[in-house]
Write a structure and sequence with these properties.
alpha/beta; two-stranded parallel ribbon; transmembrane helix; DUF3105; transmembrane
Length: 293
C-alpha cells in the first residue's frame, strides 16, 4: 500500500502539471524571417536575355549575308579555265560567242552602234567603268562597261521590271566587293538577266540559275578569253553613284560602227603587254604599268 509521502508527491506533480502552460506546436522556436523575392536578380537576367536577343537580331542576318556572299563568290573548280581547257564556257548551255577587235576607243561624247544588247565587245570608251565588285544602282553607259569587259570583268545586267528585289539581292552576292565584276540595271533588256564577258554572253530567266556561277567561274579574269590581261579594274574617277548614263535612244548616223572604222587601234591593249602587243599572260617590262592604267 503506498505511503502517505508517495501520495503527496504524486499530487504535487499533478498540480504542477496543471499550473504550467501547455506547449503548442511551434512554440519555443525562433520566429522565421520572411523570404524576399530576388527582383534585382530577375531583372538582371531579363536584361541579359534581351541583350542576347538584340545581338542575335543584329548579327545573325549579317552573318548569313556574308555566308551567302562567300558561297556565291567561290568559283566552281570544274569550270575554272586552264591551259588544257581555256574556255570552259563552251559547255554552258545558252552561251553565245563573238570575236571583236580590241583597243578601239571612242570619246566620252561618242556612241557606238552596238549590234548586241547589252554589248559584250567592240569599240568602247577610253575610260572603263569601275569593276572592283561595284553594284550600280543606276544604268551605266555601255561604252564604259564594254571597256571593263576588255579588262577581264564579268558584267551582270538585269531588267529592273523583270527581276524583283530578292533576285537583285541574290545577283549582287556574286559581285559585291569582288574584283573584276560589276552589276547594273539595264532598262528594256529582252531577258530578265544577261551576263557579259569579253566576246561572251548568256541570257537567263532567273537569279537562281546555276549557270550564273558557271559563267563567272569560267570567264572572270580568264586570261585566255580577254585582250587586256593584267589591266586594273579600279577607276576612282568613275563615279559609282552618278555614272555616265545609259542612253536608250536609237543610234544616229554619227555613231561609230562596230568595225571601228576611222579609229586607231591602241596597241597597248593587245595581249596584255604594256605597249608591246603579243606579250603572253599579261607580262610587262620592268618599270611599266599594266595596260589601261
Amino acid at each position: 500500500m503506498p505511503s502517505r509521502t508517495s501520495a503527496t508527491s504524486a499530487k504535487a506533480v499533478r498540480a504542477a502539471g496543471k499550473s504550467s502552460p501547455s506547449r503548442k506546436p511551434g512554440k519555443g522556436k525562433l520566429p522565421g524571417k520572411k523570404r524576399e523575392f530576388p527582383w534585382a536578380l530577375l531583372g538582371a537576367g531579363v536584361a541579359i536575355v534581351a541583350l542576347i536577343g538584340l545581338l542575335a537580331y543584329s548579327l545573325v542576318p549579317k552573318y548569313l549575308d556574308q555566308a551567302a556572299i562567300r558561297e556565291a563568290q567561290t568559283d566552281l573548280k570544274e569550270w575554272v579555265a586552264s591551259k588544257e581547257n581555256q574556255d570552259p564556257s563552251t559547255k554552258i548551255e545558252g552561251v553565245v560567242k563573238q570575236d571583236y577587235p580590241a583597243g578601239l576607243h571612242v570619246t566620252s561624247t561618242q556612241r557606238v552602234a552596238y549590234d548586241k544588247a547589252p554589248a559584250y565587245g567592240g569599240p568602247h570608251d577610253g575610260a572603263w567603268a569601275n569593276c572592283t565588285g561595284t553594284v550600280y544602282a543606276k544604268p551605266i553607259r555601255m561604252e564604259n562597261a564594254v571597256h571593263s569587259l576588255e579588262h577581264g570583268a564579268v558584267w551582270i545586267a538585269y531588267n529592273p521590271d523583270k527581276v524583283d528585289a530578292a533576285g537583285v539581292e541574290k545577283l549582287s552576292n556574286f559581285v559585291k566587293g569582288r574584283q573584276y565584276s560589276l552589276m547594273s540595271p539595264y532598262p528594256g533588256l529582252d531577258a530578265p538577266i544577261a551576263l557579259q564577258s569579253w566576246g561572251h554572253q548568256l541570257k537567263l530567266e532567273s537569279a537562281d540559275d546555276a549557270r550564273i556561277k558557271q559563267f563567272i567561274s569560267a570567264l572572270r579574269e580568264n586570261p585566255y578569253a580577254y585582250p587586256e590581261v593584267g589591266a586594273s579594274c579600279s577607276n576612282p574617277i568613275f563615279d559609282a553613284n552618278n555614272p555616265p548614263p545609259f542612253d536608250p535612244a536609237p543610234y544616229g548616223p554619227e555613231a561609230v560602227p562596230m568595225d571601228g572604222k576611222g579609229l586607231t587601234q591602241d596597241q597597248s591593249e593587245l595581249g596584255g603587254g604594256a605597249g608591246l602587243p603579243g606579250l603572253p599572260g599579261g607580262l610587262q617590262l620592268p618599270g611599266t604599268q599594266p595596260a589601261g592604267q
